[in-house]
Amino acid sequence: MPHISFSELKNWSRCPYYHKLTYIDKIRLFQGNEFTAFGTAVHDVCEKLLLKESIIPEDYFLQSFRKELKRLPKDLDIKKKLALDMKDQGESLLPSIMPALDEYFGEYEVVATEEPIMVPISELEGTNYNFKGYIDLVLKTSDDKIHIIDWKTCSWGWDARKKADKMIVYQLVYYKHYYAQKHNIDPESIDVHFGLLKRTAKKNHVELFKTTSGKKRTENAIKFLVHALYNVNNKNYVKNRTACGNCEFYKTKHCT
User: Fold this and answer.
1) Which of 47, 53, 105, 121 is the most buried (most CB within 10 A)?
2) What is the pTM of this model?
3) In the chain, where the domains are located
4) pLDDT of residue 125
5) Is the pLDDT score of 95 beyond 90?
């Protein structure tokens, strides 16, 4: 079933030719590092805590982190000091997760964790593309409001510029839009939030904040999605040369 995820769309936004190499030609040079291993392990613990599974968070995190590190490419030079620091940092932030949710939302119930989204993109006529995603957390508060939360691991946090970044915010706009369609509910009954899980923060290890996802922003996000898929379908793989500096394909045989 043809589909597009937010991460794929973000990579198209970064560089259409990079998108071609990774999603059309299936060439993947980057296969993870210590930071992706850390993020996956912390996400795993968040899910277990919210589902009230009987775990010792610190032990479960360490087990998951070790497993993710072992999954990294054999030729990757894992920085041992960084990995040890991450172990301590993860153990420090875990106790703050549930109290932060309780303080921010008050009384709530967990509707879903890792909810799958595979919804037709009806705005794109003449195709059968779906929007695919996994929503980290869906809550319902005592006022019957639905809340979609996406966890993001980071170092000390995000500045105001990053919090307002269009492409970052679009992720939650798409999740809200297609979650509402999946469940046939009014989008106005849904709020969206990021949850920052801070590795190096000295205090306030978890920060939750709401982001705007109104009608105009949703229209702009859908317009961008349709524009991207139109170009993908028409094989318009233009190189964005301003993005070359941080690209793993730069000056390789794949992208001269």
Assistant:
1) 121
2) 0.95
3) 3-26+96-246
4) 81
5) yes
pLDDT over 70, % of the chain: 100
CB 91 within 8 A of CB 204: no
Token pair recorded at residue 248? 């793993």
User: Could you give the angle at the alpha carbon of 147 between the alpha carbons of 210 and 163, nearest 5°?
Assistant: 20
Length of the chain equals 256
Those residues whose C-beta lies under 8 Å from the C-beta of residue 225, and which sit 6 or more positions away, are 4, 9, 121, 123, 124, 131, 174
- Residue 244 CB partners (closer than 8 Å, separation 6+): 250
**What pLDDT sits at residue 37?**
98
Distance CA 170, CA 176 (A): 10
**Amino acid sitting at position 37:** A
Q: Which architecture characterizes domain 3-26+96-246 according to CATH? A: Alpha-Beta Complex (3.90)
